[in-house]
Amino acid sequence: MSGPVPVRIVRSAARAIQEAAEWWVVNRPKAADGFTVELERAIQLLSSQPTIGARARNARLTGVRRIHLTRIHYYLLPCDC
C-alpha cells in the first residue's frame, strides 16, 4: 500500500475556495469554520483514495470526477489530468 498522494489546487480553484470560505464565515456564523473543515477532510480523503468520486460527464477534460461534500452542499472536482 502506498502513502498519500499530493493534492494540487489550481489557481482558479484556489480563488473559488477562498471566496466560498469567506462567504461561509459571513453567512454561517454558527459554523464559520464548517466549509474549511469539510474541505480539508475531503482533501485528506482524496489524498489517501485518489480515485474516489463519480466520473463527471459534462467536463471538458477527461479524468474529472465529482465528490459531493454533503455537509456544505459543494462539489469537489478532482482531475487525473
Question: How would you portray this structure in words?
Answer:
- The protein is α+β, with helices and mostly antiparallel strands.
- The protein has one domain (11-76).
- It is 40% helix and 12% strand.
- It contains two helices and three strands; from the N terminus they run H-H-E-E-E.
- A three-stranded antiparallel beta sheet has the order 1-2-3, with helices on one face.
- The longest helix is centred in the first third of the chain and has 17 residues, at 11-27.
- The protein starts with 10 loop residues before the first helix and ends in a 5-residue tail after the last strand.
Overview in brief:
With 81 residues, the chain is α+β, with helices and mostly antiparallel strands. The protein has helices at 11-27, 34-48; strands spanning 54-55, 65-69, 74-76. It has one domain.
Share in helix: 25-40%
Which structural class fits the helix and strand makeup? alpha+beta
Strand content range: 5-15%
The helix/strand series, from N terminus to C terminus, equals HHEEE
Radius of gyration: 13 Å
If strands are numbered along the chain, what order do they take across the biggest sheet? 1-2-3
Distance between the termini: 23 Å
Number of domains: 1
Extract low-pLDDT stretches: none
Instruction: Output the number of helix runs.
Output: 2
User: Can you summarize the main beta sheet?
Assistant: 3 strands, antiparallel
